[in-house]
Model the fold of this input.
Amino acid sequence: MSINRRALLKGALAAGVVGATNPFIGNRRVEGGMFGYQPFTQPFFKPPVINKGSSLDPMPGTPEASLGSDAVYHGVAPEFYPDHPAHLPDWDSLPEKYWELEAVEGPWQFFPGVDTPAFAYRGKPGTASATPPSFPGPTFLARQGEPTVVRYTNLTSVETSVHLHGDHGPAHSDGSPDFYVLQDKTRDYYYPNVGPRLNATPEVPFPATVEEAGPYEVAHLPTTMWYHDHAMDVTGFTVNRGLAGFYLSEDDLEVQHQQNGFLPKLYGDFDHVLALKDFKFNNDGTLAYDLLDHNGHIGDVKTANGRAQPYMEVYRRKYRFRILNACNARYLHLRLNSSKGKNQKDGIPFLMIGKDTWEIPEATDLESFTICPGERFDVIIDFSQLPEDVDTYYLQNIMHQTDGRKPKGIRPKKEHAAWLQFRLLDGDPPGPQEIEGVENGVYSVSAGDPVREYHAYSNDEVVATRVFDFSRKHGAWVVNDKYYSPRRTDAVPLLNSCERWIFKNGGGGWYHPIHVHLEGLQVQSIDGKDRDHPEFPVQYRWNTDLINLEGGEEAVCLIKFRTFKGPFVCHCHIIEHEDMRMMFTFDPRETGEESMNDGIRNHAWNEEAALQSGMPTGCIDPHKLLFDHEQTLASGEVVGPGDVPQLEEEGVGFPGDFHDNVCEPDSGDWDPEGNQLTNDSPIPEEQEDR
Ligand SMILES: [Cu+2]
Done:
């Protein structure tokens, strides 16, 4: 079966809600069926590491691997080239390394012996990167300052786009919703593994030297990221099919922490990734996913790293877990307990050392915490605190939730809340010590210990304030009353500047976890409660790339836009809300430079709207419209309409189907101002705000 994204969506519409024979919508499995599976009888899965290679054929950036080539159809980011103004000499101080990644279709066993059709990432067979297809996908281990290229080939039947969530990287490599990797095509994702620079200012958009740029902001160097599909309209479907994995990064400080025995060795026996995701299954073992449900996909099977309720053997030692809420729409409230169901009140705390992409200033005990879709908590669990007679222990979710609107609250006595069982091993871990001079499995990190410095932005740095209102319209989702369009830029901040972004939840009781690409947020206040307020959530005291907004809430945040020109997106991370247009584009630019989208601000594929806006109609080459007027590039060069080669060098990634030369008007009814052009709501007005 070959389907592209558009066909997939059309198929969903045609199938309506009957769908028993449709692979994407089906009857729910009989409750309690579980395909004969008894919880906590299959082992925990640790995703394999994807190894780096030292060359690619053809090498990235060469003519054989440039945009439109057979080998790498979608090319590489312009920032890859050393003469790009953003590319500083010390980006290349370590030799470049290469990964080869593929997305494929194939079965995954959530339950032992049950092959479920799924998608998966894998390291390309026959290369240094080779790993079997898995969910989560293979784990990337990056070194800050070591430049890398991920050569990614899409072997699935839908267009995909890989987003590295939490990365500070080029727009071409950011997985923007329509920076597709088409079926059987390849893109070189360039990750320079750099952070923002301390001296970044709007006055000097691209410092010429390392000295001028200043050192990296240690506070903003990443540790825990994840990669997942981000293709427009179908991200909920593709992520739910398994296109997600982890990308961990270490810098000098992180290496020091390991060498000092403060933290476990990167991805060693005591450092784990833990993706928690709910899935829904049909009776025949296939995944159930309703493309017409824009409220949020909720599953009833609890998985940890792609296995239904597994067990994990642990020594009575400290372990690091990078916990990810990989659910499309489910909020989790996590705690540790000795009972798989009832409240025994014998939990030990999580020692939080990081939130989302970044480590925090001080290791902080959390008894329990709420983690929203897309969020990461980097925690230490110290199993040595457990009494000797405790030999099984559980990670529980005690948040109750039945639909995508919002969780229904914490139910501490909820039965069957356990997602993962820990089986305690007695004695010392065998084998060689992980780190010389450190007793195997004994790490010093404790509550109150400093982990990483924090650099707070100041209100004095703010050059602009913008308000973004997230709400519901015609059963779909809008920001400032507009549906997402990749052809419209909603904010053009000044490169390297600091802005105040006020996020509002338009109400109706829906929750929206707001995620920003490129940079983290520094939350100043939530509903008027500032950072010193006792009710201010601990997870928002430092850098965060997600802020949850409950119904009617308002959060004031500071954000910077450093190093890279856009476009980037900001969106709700309830993926069905994102797919149904709760997203907007921001595009950091130099003073006086327009966004790549400005030239087509008034363009709509809809002929009637195009006529009204005075734009040409009929068969339109979208690229010619990217800049329909003269504009001065950063290089000083003046380009006019249709100057495609120059624009490509300048480098904002382009939608893949541009090169198809197919003038097929999109069926979208989205006009540039975000108004619905027809009276037909895309989905029924069911469950409007109550
Ligand atoms: Cu939302």
